[in-house]
Structure formats: C-alpha cells, structure tokens
Specification:
12 helices; 47% helix; alpha+beta; eight-stranded mixed β-sheet; three-stranded antiparallel β-sheet; single chain
C-alpha cells in the first residue's frame, strides 16, 4: 500500500488545503513548465516557502522536475484540469448562489449546466417590479451596440417589436426564437381591426398605430430570422450577442422573476450561444407566408 495515500482525503488535502499548491497546479496547467525563478515571480513568495509545497506535489507524482524546470505529469494535468473545472463552477455558484438555488434550472441542458463555470465573472441584475416593462438602460445599450443578436422570447414584452425593428434598421444580424403563445399574441395584436386601447387622444392613437406597424414589420420583413419553439421546457428569456449574454429563468414554481444573469467573458458568450443553439435546433423557422395578418 502506498503510504502517501494513507487516507482517502489525503490527495484532496494536498491540493485544496494549500493555496500555494493549488495555484501552482493551475499555473502549470495554464502556462506550461516553469523554472524556479518563474514560479517565484508568479507568486511573489520566498523560494524556501515553495520548496516543501512542490515536494508534496512531486510526492504524489503530480509535478515532475527536469533540471530547473517543473511541469505537470500526465495525471497531474488531468487532475489540474478537473480542479480548475470544479473551482470555476464553485465560484460561479457561490457568487450568485440565490439565483442558481431559487430558479428552475431544468431549461439548461445538463451538459451545459455542468460547464456553468465557463460563465466566469457574472452578476445578477435585479429590476424594480414597478418598471417591469422597461428594459434597463445598461442592458439596452449593450444589445444595441452589438453586431449580432440571438434572443429567445417566451414572455411577451411590449418593447420587443420596437427593439426588433431597430435591429433590422441597423442591419444587425439577428435571430429570434418565439414561443407559440408569444407569436399568437403578436399576430392578434397586429391583425385585429379593433384599437389596442380606446382613446380619443390623436397622438396616443397614432402611437398605437405605429406600434402595430412595428409588429407587422417584425413578422413580415424578408430580413427577419424568426423561429418558433413549441416545447414545454424553456428559459423565460435569453439574449446572446457578440458583447454580452443575458439569461432569465423561471423560479421553481414556474413564475417569472425580476432577476437577470449577465455575463460578458468570451467563454460565457460561447456558453450562451450553445444554449441558444440548443433551442434553435428544436424550433421551426417561420416564413412570412405563415404569418397571416
């Protein structure tokens, strides 16, 4: 029996009970073999304090030494990769624990949920319920500044048609997935001969007419790239651009909330795009001939 493995937790202790050992493993994984001088420079610790930490990693055959260079062994690379994977996931969960614990995560495929650490440094925006139909300025500006937009809409938002028309006017590369109820609501809003709201105010009536025209433009434009999702499991809404990712989920009782997760690191954008494509693959494209108005 290997005396180094005298207890089941000893290898875990070796890695996680010392920041120096843990960070050295991650450094060697990220940047490759390092000399003693490079290790000292990376951590700004006296070399004498690093020697016993390196020896412990070498005792477990996680780090190997050749001359003055230190590198991960094959299994050291495997363990460092998984350690980083775990630490990233823990950090994302810990930073926004309430969001992850209080929302229904079933709309996120398990293979993506296990990679939640890729979201990196993200934050939760909490909107005032009294302004539920107003898009926060920071979200709106991030979206409008983007060259590509992918959005999933399962809850109708009055500003959606206006925003979509803005995309088309700016020639933004935009793809929208609607749920069937949202599509039916838009068609009803646009196709009805009845006024949306009764008013004798000519300015207000003109604004309502323009709003109906925006909906019609959204549904019939040749540049529209609309898809319809009819499944039961879905996020409340999602926006993925080349600059930022927003995700809104239902709570565990299936209710809408006022919290939106925002992330902008490159890996987070790729994660968000994969989530969007998951739903796009399960949606049918909507042609203008299918939108009777």
């Amino acid at each position: 029996m290997n005396s180094r493995a005298g207890s089941k937790s000893s290898l875990l202790d070796t890695i996680f009970l010392s920041d120096k050992r843990k960070n050295l493993l991650l450094l060697l994984k990220e940047e490759g073999p390092k000399s003693s001088d490079e290790i000292k420079s990376a951590f700004d610790f006296p070399w004498k304090s690093m020697i016993p930490q390196i020896r412990k990693l070498m005792d477990w055959d996680l780090v190997v030494q050749k001359d003055d260079m230190y590198a991960l062994s094959d299994m050291g690379g495997v363990i460092a990769t998984n350690a980083r994977f775990l630490l990233e996931s823990l950090a994302v969960y810990e930073e926004n624990r309430e969001f992850w614990s209080e929302h229904d995560l079933s709309s996120i495929p398990f293979n993506l949920l296990t990679r939640v650490g890729e979201l990196g440094c993200c934050k939760v925006l909490e909107q005032d319920l009294s302004q539920a139909f107003r898009i926060p300025e920071d979200i709106l500006q991030n979206i409008l500044d983007s060259n590509r937009v992918m959005t999933f809409v399962s809850v109708f938002h009055p500003s959606s048609p206006l925003l979509f028309s803005e995309y088309l006017e700016r020639r933004t590369d935009v793809t929208v997935i609607l749920t069937n109820p949202v599509l039916e609501m838009l068609q009803a809003e646009c196709g009805s001969d009845l006024p949306l709201l009764k008013s004798s105010n000519p300015i207000f009536k003109k604004a309502l007419l323009e709003y109906k025209n925006e909906i019609k433009h959204m549904l019939t434009s040749e540049n529209s790239n609309l898809f319809v999702y009819e499944g039961d499991t879905m996020p409340m809404s999602m926006i993925v651009t080349d600059k930022v990712f927003f995700l809104s989920l239902l709570d565990k009782k299936g209710r809408s909330t006022n919290r939106v997760l925002m992330a902008s690191e490159a890996r987070a954008l790729k994660w968000g795009e994969e989530l969007f494509l998951y739903y796009k693959e399960r949606s049918g494209q909507l042609s203008t001939s299918e939108t009777p108005l």
